Amino acid sequence: MSKFVILLGGIVHVTDRLRQLVAGARVLAADGGIAHAEALGLTPELWLGDFDSTSPELDAQYADVPRSVFPAAKDMTDGELALNEAWRLGATEVILCGAFGGPRTDHTLLHLTMATRYAAEGRKLVLSSGSEEAHPLVAGSHDFDFADGTPFSIVAFTPLQGLFIEGARWPLENMELFFGSSLTVSNAVCGNLHVSLHSGKAILIAAPQVA
């Protein structure tokens, strides 16, 4: 297993769970996401992007970190550039840290959909801000280690067929869920959460620190 953390420019709350999640991983930073490195006790091995979100203070603080500089006029985000680099370096698991919040809602939505796209290709990804986690759901079975009472929602990106939810306050059995449905929003863990899906793509978003 080769675990990578990619530091993104969204919000990060440093929690024990997040520290455990990133422990032992190789680290890449996407532009201004390097601001989270110190609080998490991480040292990036590579800093990528067009550096339009990097302050002079960060530029000086991390002057010794190797950089891969791209033009501002490019055809993908700094986060996707970093993710592609992680795959190139042999990543088998990627944690997108700082994937939510910040000034760019479009980037948050991209991180959620991009992770789900790669999960459908067999890649393993988790998105975290420390206070929230997101896990792509594609066809197959998925087990989670959340504590009892942890709030979670499932948001469908496509129609879902054969959705089962076990170990939840409101379980479901062999449901069809249409795109845009709120049926699976605001559930809570009750036991060992297990989700399985016959077909479709979705994201499970949980708040582990609330439990």
CATH homologous superfamily label of the largest domain = Thiamin pyrophosphokinase, catalytic domain
In total, how many domains does the architecture comprise?
A: 2
SSE topology string? EHEHEHEHEHEEEEEEEE
**CATH architecture tag of the largest domain:** 3-Layer(aba) Sandwich
Beta-strand percent range? 25-35%
Question: Which fold name fills CATH's third level, the topology of the largest domain?
Answer: Rossmann fold
Task: Please state the average pLDDT score.
Answer: 91
Structural class: alpha/beta
Care to count the β-strands? 13
Number of helices: 5
Protein traits:
about 210 residues, alpha/beta, Rossmann fold, Jelly Rolls, 2 domains, 13-stranded mixed β-sheet
Give an overview in words.
It is an enzyme of class 2 (transferase). The chain contains five helices and 13 strands. By secondary structure, the protein is an alpha/beta fold. Strands 1, 2, 3, 4, 5, 6, 7, 8, 9, 10, 11, 12 and 13 form a 13-stranded mixed beta sheet that branches. It is globular and about 55 Å long. It starts with a strand and ends in a 5-residue tail after the last strand. The model has no long low-confidence stretch (mean pLDDT about 90).
